[in-house]
Amino acid sequence: MPSSLVQEKKKQGLLSVAGVKHTFQLLHQARALYRRARQLEQRAAKLKNIRKSLNKDAVAELAFNVHKKRRGNRIFKNYKNRASTTTLKQLKDSSVLFSCEMDALVHNFPSRKISKKHRNLLNFLMKRNFDVFEIEGERISHLRGSYNPKPPVGCQIFVKMIPGHVTEIKLMPLFERFGSIHQFRLLKNLTKYPRDCCAFITYGHPSEAALAIECLNKYEIKRNRCIQVYESFDNCRLFIGRIPVYKTRDEVRSKLSERISEIFDVIMYPASIEGHINRGYVLLEFPCHRLAENALKQLAAGVVFWNTTLVATWAYPVPKVTKETMEQVKNLFIQNLPRKMSEDDFRQFLINVLKDVTFLKTQKVDDYALVHFASRAAAEKAFDRLKWTFVKGHEIIISWAKPLNQINYV
Length: 410
Hints:
By secondary structure, the protein is α+β, with helices and mostly antiparallel strands.
């Protein structure tokens, strides 16, 4: 209702004071919505031009990570008028483009003004042809065009003890001396030292990562402040403690699946003395490190199952041995044997199962044993025959033994 018509109606006594106030409030809101819609339309036009220059793979990956945190989604819930809806639908389709704007770098901050520090950082990364976005405490800088093919295993390094005020402006030139960086992930406030942070850096070739580890480990980046550089290991296992000892593996998996998805395997060991109960913990294995990290975030807050608050942390990584070394192994590691089974009985069991395959010696301790063979061919034949074998009701677990002198704990 135009303001002149409102004044006329008021003179005629057709509108009350409360009605006039309400009408003016509606007019004010309508004008604000109209101005906001015009601003969003102008921004959408600008973002469409930027989107054309982005790599398609980069758009797909970034949109998945950032569209949930866009301010446009929050505005979309508040404003229901037709003009705003049309504009915001366009912004939702191109929400990834906010990552190319300066305010995308600091979208978690309440102020819309960009500090000089963040402006310089964004300019630095964009000049080096990096796409930048933030998600859940991580600032991820990804080199454009490097999404496919993915760098091979062994190209990622882990850097810790980074001073909190040190940014990519100082770190990137330092690590680029040893090769081209494909991805730089800086993690804030995720270490036990509040003023320190850590980073994951991905190179294009494993030799570049190895050279960076050799040269920059214990490098003094500031006075009396040394960073530590290691080979990054994609740990896909979680340790879950305080599991009731009478729960079976299937019961634990079914219960944890209510909160966590995509569990690859649940590893449960029997107790040392009483084999019919578990040890009070399980190991959860996931297909990749990212899924394991997301599961840890869900469980770290303290999930209550069976009237007990579970404890979740990273499991010790599986010892890393090169493929060439494992192809030369001639020993078998056997688990889940009966504890009361003597070593003589175990040897007789092997003779009955392996028949013409001879072994050199055996070593049995508690519920596991080590079997030595003279050749790799004999060990492979024994491996095939021992698969899916039961001993006194126990299904044995068989694997290749890892040489102690070749194990690299990372």
